[in-house]
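Deliverable D2.4 — example input (structure tokens):
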């Protein structure tokens, strides 16, 4: 039975992460918040993913301050974040107490919906974040990292969704990060999920428009009964970003799926972000190429960000002519490694290994520590059996981790108290400990800059006071 479709707007997170290297600043967001807050979205995705790292590393912004200011400016709309399971927002696994505390403070500072995913779809890497989200009262949306392989069948995804629902998921998200989910496949998968899951469990579709099929995939999913879809305002929509918001709202208006969203308000917000997009383009962080349709995405199953990374690696090596050899090698490496979905961090690992295999002229002659870690089980359980001959070549006689990585002594996780002791000199708020835990060197530099700025402010106030004193 058809029903109103809800939309999550990604303009404040994935849209600029996909197109402009996550360089949008808070000052670019706040002027549009009053309008965005009136539209009536299911949620606004505005935090998590690469935004946290980018705030500290490139923008000299405190990500926690950003979140609090957005919450204040958007009182009527649920705020959503992307959370990498046991990786949180970093690039390694963190202890359960760090996961718990990060979840608590995310919700305390304004997050309502936490979308949790794991690059390998390993439920063991998802469970601590699911438990913490439920414990602190957040809406728990758990993602299926969608990909295509002999093991990633519709039955696989439905069974995984049922397991995640039992673990506490309120929503199940189909996370199609590489725009591989074809429209009729989407229809079938959504139908199967809606039939298998409880009526109160919402199904949320996240796709991109890299291959030019995103709008059609959204529409077929809607016809199959999906509850929520992700879209991005057209100023930073389409291409490697999400399908644009306005065309979908217009398409569904007056139908049984009508979103009920105000297209006039949406257009006003779009006008603002058109100026932001131009500014990002002028700064050189938004390349118009990201708006082009590339159907090779379906052939090589390489997400847009991964493709850019491969091109840059080859350019730096002076071997740009080897691109198609590398693209042919990617699926072979992926098969050897047990068919991991290509999403952070596995996309970078598989891509870099493919580049090395081609440039050295011998497969697995050189293997980065990340490839070794993936083959050793440091990222979790791989979806399918690996090529054992390749594994021996990559890791030799190293011990294979079969338990949850953070439970293995050889992994060497740190706990919250250790991070507190290490960064004590910089502590100004409880959130600082988490910033340091995820990005120690980057956060330390940020804290030093913040401290210097504060000292400068204090001296300025003191100088004014001294100047005002009578002689």
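Example output (designed residues):
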């Amino acid at each position: 039975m058809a029903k109103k479709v809800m939309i999550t707007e990604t303009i404040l997170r994935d849209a600029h992460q996909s197109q402009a290297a996550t360089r949008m600043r808070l000052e670019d967001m706040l002027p549009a918040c009053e309008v965005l807050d009136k539209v009536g979205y299911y949620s606004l995705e505005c935090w998590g993913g690469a935004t946290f790292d980018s705030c500290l590393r490139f923008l000299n912004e405190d990500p926690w301050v950003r979140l609090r200011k957005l919450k204040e400016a958007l009182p009527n709309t649920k705020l959503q974040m992307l959370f990498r399971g046991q990786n949180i927002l970093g690039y390694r696994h963190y202890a359960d107490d760090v996961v718990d505390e990060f979840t608590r403070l995310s919700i305390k500072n304004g997050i309502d919906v936490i979308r949790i995913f794991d690059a390998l779809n390993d439920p063991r890497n998802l469970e601590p974040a699911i438990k913490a989200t439920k414990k602190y009262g957040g809406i728990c949306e758990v993602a299926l990292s969608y990909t295509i392989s002999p093991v990633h069948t519709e039955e696989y995804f439905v069974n995984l969704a049922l397991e995640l629902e039992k673990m506490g998921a309120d929503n199940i998200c189909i996370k199609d990060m590489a725009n591989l989910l074809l429209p009729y496949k989407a229809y079938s998968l959504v139908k199967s999920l809606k039939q298998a899951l409880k009526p109160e469990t919402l199904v949320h579709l996240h796709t991109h428009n890299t291959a030019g099929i995103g709008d059609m995939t959204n529409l077929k999913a809607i016809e199959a009964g999906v509850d929520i879809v992700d879209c991005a305002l057209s100023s930073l929509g389409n291409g490697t970003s999400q399908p644009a918001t306005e065309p979908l709202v217009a398409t569904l208006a007056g139908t049984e799926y009508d979103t009920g969203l105000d297209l006039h308000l949406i257009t006003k917000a779009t006008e603002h972000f058109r100026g932001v997009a131009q500014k990002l383009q002028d700064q050189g962080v938004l390349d118009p190429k990201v708006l082009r349709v590339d159907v090779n995405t379906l052939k090589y199953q390489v997400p847009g960000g991964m493709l850019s990374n491969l091109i840059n690696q080859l350019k730096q090596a002076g071997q740009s002519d080897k691109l198609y050899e590398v693209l042919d090698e990617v699926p072979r490496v992926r098969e050897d490694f047990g068919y991991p979905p290509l999403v952070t961090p596995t996309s970078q690992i598989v891509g870099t290994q493919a580049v090395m295999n081609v440039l050295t002229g011998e497969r697995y002659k050189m293997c980065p520590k990340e490839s070794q870690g993936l083959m050793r089980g440091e990222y979790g359980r791989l979806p399918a059996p690996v090529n054992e001959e390749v594994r021996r070549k990559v890791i030799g006689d190293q011990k294979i981790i079969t338990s949850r990585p953070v439970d293995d002594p050889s992994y060497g996780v740190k706990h919250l108290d250790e991070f507190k002791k290490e960064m004590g000199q910089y502590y100004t708020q409880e959130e600082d400990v988490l910033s340091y835990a995820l990005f120690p060197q980057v956060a330390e530099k940020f804290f030093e800059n913040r401290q210097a700025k504060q000292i400068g402010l204090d001296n300025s106030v003191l100088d004014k006071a001294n100047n005002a004193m009578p002689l």
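The first strand starts at residue 6 and ends at 9.
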